[in-house]
Amino acid sequence: MQIFSLRRQRWRATDRRMQLRCWSTSRRSIRAVCFIPNAPLLESQAYLDLHDAGNALRVLTPLQNTPAAGRSDFRLALGKVYQASGNAAQALAFYRQIYLGDPLSPEATSAKIQLAAMNAPLAPAERKQHADAMFNAKQYAVAAEEYRALQKNEKQLTQADRDALEIYAAVCDLRLKKLSRTDVSRLPVTGDDSAALKLYLESELAREGGNTGEHDQNCPGNVKDYSQSRWLEEALYSGGNMYLSGGNMYLLKKDYPKAITEYEDLTQHFPHSTYAPSAHWRAAWLNYRMRHYPDAARLMDEQIVNYPAGTEVPGALYWRARLYEDIEHKPATSAQLLPGAERSLMRTPITRCWEGSASLSSGATKPLNPRQYWRQCILSRTRN
Distance (Å, rounded) from C-alpha 184 to C-alpha 229? Predict the structure, then answer.
């Protein structure tokens, strides 16, 4: 058996040497093939299999100032090379960078394994950072598991930290449809930012149950006591926030005045929020539908000025032009806005939809030109 084992090792070593010989003698021709981005990584791995960390590092070092250095597979390979060469500090730095900076990459799992193999556990703050990253990426099951593991296994944490982690895990359960009102009632009482999150959980469960009174009671509590809380803005209803969640609730109930109030509250408290452009536009459009034309005109003007890069701007320009023409009887001003609306929309994916529609079958119908298609898209997008 020992003889066969030695033979297998020799065959593998011979195979690696043949690979290295091919890379070294045919590097110019290899550059022309499609898999060249991975060639240095394969070459360095072949050197590592031969326990030649010096040459493996020589292959990868020239690439550190190139675009390849930003790839997770390159950083993982470089970490392994530093680890093999005895530079544990550099290796750990690369592994941590991958695990924390690119947690969704395939290399993140390998980096975590290497950290464990080097007996370099992550600090509680780093574990929390990774769990937050998974939460933000909507990997709620993984995030909940990491929050609970951190809460139970880290002896360095204070009771306040453990209570906050329990509430964070409850939010994951909410997104996974696994949270009940009884679960929320058992959550600890905290005095930090997580208290605003607990209030959100209560208001969200009230919204799902159709209890608008309880929902309204919890929302002002967040505004009054936690006006700077991240969870007031990022209260996580389908990637939105609590005010947006509340606005959607009243929108579905066709309580348009209340929905407008909720949307305007969001834009007033968090004008730079990711969700502010959408909420602001919904308030403007609901005012238009309710024939509150002065308020609609004001909000559309604000939409154009305050959120010029938003996808809602083409609709705001078009319907503001309609208000100028139909309500304010200023056709000249309306004519000035329409070209701007068209130029704005021509930079959006809707235009690419029109360009791609040339492949439609002969029996399909489509507008005669981009302008007609643009008007149809505006109407369909804003009236829904």
Answer: 19
Query: pLDDT tens digit string along 218-271?
Result: 654 555 666 666 666 554 333 233 445 556 666 666 778 888 887 888 888 778
* Euclidean distance between CA atoms 98 and 269, whole angstroms: 36
Helix (H, G, I), strand (E, B) or coil at 66: coil
C-alpha dihedral sign at 149, 142, 79, 13? positive
Extended strands (E) in 58-157: none
Backbone angles phi, psi at 264, to 5 degrees: -70, -35
Instruction: Classify domain 12-120 at the CATH class level.
Output: mainly alpha
Q: One-letter amino acid identity for 289? A: R
Alpha-carbon distance of 191 to 364, in angstroms, equals: 61
Give the helix/strand (H/E) hosting 282. helix 276-289
Residue pair 277/307 in contact (Cβ under 8 Å)? The answer is yes
Question: CA distances (Å), 185 to each of 179, 201, 215, in order?
Answer: 11, 10, 15
pLDDT in tens, 26-75: 444 444 444 456 788 888 888 888 888 888 888 888 888 888 888 889 89
Q: b/e per residue, 87-113, with b = 16+ CB within 10 A?
A: eeeebbebbbebbbebbebebbebbbe
Q: What is the DSSP string of 200-254?
A: HHHHHHHHHTT-HHHHHHHHHHHHHH-TT-HHHH---STTS-HHHHHHHHHHHTT
Amino acid at 279: A
Query: Which residue's structure tokens are 């939809």?
Result: 353
Say how far apart CA 372 and CA 365 lie, in whole Å. Answer: 12
- Residue 344 · residue 313 · CB < 8 Å: yes
Q: Which residues are CB-contacts of 102 (< 8 A; sequence separation ≥ 6)?
A: 72, 108
Q: What residue segments make up the domains of the chain, in order of their start? A: 12-120, 311-357+366-384
